[in-house]
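Here is the promised in-class demo. Please do not try to memorize the tokens; focus on the logic of going from shape to residues.
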């Protein structure tokens, strides 16, 4: 049986933004909800979830992403609005949107989608762009 690992493509968040998110979480904990909070060190922006992938495909995926990313210029993001996903009238997920650099983020998202589709991964509708970070 071929060993598989769950993979996603994401953007690492810089230390300054992680520090701001940590401070925001501390403030929200005091006033809003209890729950299992994400460690700010693990917060990222998910561009695409690939699912369980055979280990022998990881190098190919990495090379394709490096090729695609070489055409994307660096950009900056800022913290955006806070939102919630509910389940049975309870907050299931609190998320944090981003602003600034959204055109570049969209270009990166589209590049990841196209590259992964070329490797046989299922595409997602354009409306599924995940430019948010889960906080809870």
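The designed amino acids, position by position:
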């Amino acid at each position: 049986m071929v060993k598989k690992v769950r993979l996603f493509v994401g953007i690492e968040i810089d230390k300054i933004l992680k520090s701001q998110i940590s401070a925001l979480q501390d403030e929200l904990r005091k006033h809003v909800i209890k729950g299992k909070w994400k460690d700010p060190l693990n917060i990222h922006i998910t561009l695409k979830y690939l699912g369980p992938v055979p280990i022998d495909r990881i190098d190919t995926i990495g090379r394709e992403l490096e090729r695609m990313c070489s055409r994307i210029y660096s950009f900056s993001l800022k913290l955006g609005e806070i939102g919630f996903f509910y389940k049975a009238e309870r907050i299931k997920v609190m998320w944090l949107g981003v602003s600034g650099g959204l055109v570049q983020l969209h270009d990166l998202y589209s590049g990841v989608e196209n590259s992964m589709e070329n490797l046989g991964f299922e595409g997602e509708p354009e409306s599924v762009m995940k430019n948010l970070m889960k906080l809870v």
